[in-house]
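Run log // design_07
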């Protein structure tokens, strides 16, 4: 058999992302503030565009644009990551907050495009103290544009990469993990290091209340080694993200408004969420009368771009309204009464109901929010994975956490509930989860164990 190279004809199918479709996806993913900046630049660069003060979108006489009409039906799993993912503008000064501090470091890491997108999702999931509080399913939901989908071990590997960034201890799931990450950076000959690792890893809850003799037995070390270990542990920072500086104030300008009427909830676009565009009729009339004149070809191209942009913005608005309508209808209890009434909901369920791809829904909710009577709610908060099924009821992770917070808030301060008692209390609400899950949720809420809560009352 000959192994020499040769040419052979063949047929294959490939989805090619047209430039206008790529731009339509970018517009869909942009939140209001970034969309306003993009439209302001379009007004400055395109003479055929002007700001529409009437609030009406011009669509008459605009040619059909099949690419825009069909983009929502396609699978955009292989599309480029949207520009709204978080890269700051080139002219912007770096913000003194944890997110930008980590993103600046990620830009210097040698990561593939896929791993970098996962790392950005992990950074976005961190709280102000630097802890990773979100569930893995919620991180995967933010990466639904991936094809193939992100695997749990793939996300875990990237989390370990983020944990090596400065400040050390960031992206930890628990305080003990945070301290262990910091201990791992110490030199091997650091006095008390081995004892400190053992105490933090396996006896973390004993550190605050055990006497010196018991700590020596737990660590299997001498009194001097335990003293050195405690000094080492006290020098660690359990809140590594807090020292980077507070995040700048973020102002949410909702894209949607939810109103409750006699026929139920109604979702409509926020007319003040950004500038409305229209075609400059004076220039359009001049172009119609001077199609062969000097500069007519350039203006004709700008006119085509202007009409396409207006259509794309109109379709973006329609898509957001459709998504918002489904979210409010499916999570009416959440909108009316708060997180305790949040039911499980995934991107796939919304995509199937609307008839779009999951990646389209992911881009539509990214960075967007809706104004409701209870306040402005990010659209991402409408999604939550199911954690259990009891009878005919299923519960979302966030709803379970809110119920757990309420149970602890109403307990007898002199007799705080143990994790096992919290499992039983949740079971009375038809929420059946394991004790280790209760402990994980309790730590995510910043609630101390029962012994620590009792000791705090006695003080």
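design_07 sequence
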């Amino acid at each position: 058999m000959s192994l020499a190279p040769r040419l052979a004809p063949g047929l294959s199918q490939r989805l090619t992302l047209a430039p206008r479709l790529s731009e339509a996806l970018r517009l869909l993913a942009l939140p209001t503030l970034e969309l306003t900046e993009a439209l302001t630049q379009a007004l400055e660069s395109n003479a055929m565009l002007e700001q529409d003060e009437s609030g009406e979108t011009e669509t008459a006489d605009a040619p059909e644009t099949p690419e825009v009409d069909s983009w929502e039906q396609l699978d955009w799993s292989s599309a480029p990551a949207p520009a709204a993912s978080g890269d700051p503008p080139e002219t912007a000064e770096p913000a003194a907050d944890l997110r930008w501090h980590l993103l600046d470091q990620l830009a210097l890491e040698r990561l593939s495009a896929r791993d970098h997108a996962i790392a950005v999702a992990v950074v976005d999931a961190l709280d102000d103290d630097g802890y990773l509080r979100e569930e893995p399913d919620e991180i995967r939901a933010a990466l639904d544009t991936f094809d193939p989908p992100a695997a749990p071990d793939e996300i875990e590997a990237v989390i370990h990469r983020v944990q090596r960034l400065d400040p050390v201890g960031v992206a930890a799931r628990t305080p003990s993990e945070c301290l262990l990450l910091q201990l791992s950076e110490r030199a091997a000959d650091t006095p008390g290091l081995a004892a400190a690792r053992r105490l933090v890893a396996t006896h973390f809850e004993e550190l605050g209340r055990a006497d010196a003799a018991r700590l020596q037995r737990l660590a299997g070390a001498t009194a001097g080694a335990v003293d050195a270990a405690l000094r080492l542990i006290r020098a660690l920072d359990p809140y590594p993200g807090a020292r980077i500086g507070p995040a700048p104030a973020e102002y949410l300008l909702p894209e949607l408004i939810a109103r409750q009427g006699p026929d139920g909830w109604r979702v409509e676009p926020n007319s003040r969420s950004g500038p409305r565009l229209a075609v400059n009729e004076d220039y359009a009339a001049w172009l119609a009368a001077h199609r062969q004149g000097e500069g007519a070809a350039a203006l004709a191209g700008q006119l085509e771009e202007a009409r396409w942009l207006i259509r794309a913005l109109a379709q973006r608005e329609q898509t957001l309204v459709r998504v918002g309508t489904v979210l409010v209808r499916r999570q009416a209890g959440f909108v009316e009464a708060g997180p305790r009434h949040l039911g499980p909901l995934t991107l796939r369920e919304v995509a199937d109901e609307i008839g779009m791809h999951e990646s389209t829904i992911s881009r539509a909710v990214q960075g967007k929010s809706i104004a409701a009577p209870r306040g402005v709610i990010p659209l991402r908060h409408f999604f939550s994975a199911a954690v259990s099924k009891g009878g005919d009821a299923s519960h979302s992770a966030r709803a379970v956490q809110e119920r757990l917070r309420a149970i602890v808030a109403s307990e007898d301060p002199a007799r705080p509930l143990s994790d096992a008692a919290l499992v039983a209390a949740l079971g009375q609400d038809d929420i059946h989860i394991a004790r280790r899950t209760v402990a994980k949720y309790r730590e995510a809420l910043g609630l101390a164990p029962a012994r620590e809560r009792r000791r705090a009352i006695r003080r």
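Residues 175-239 form one domain.
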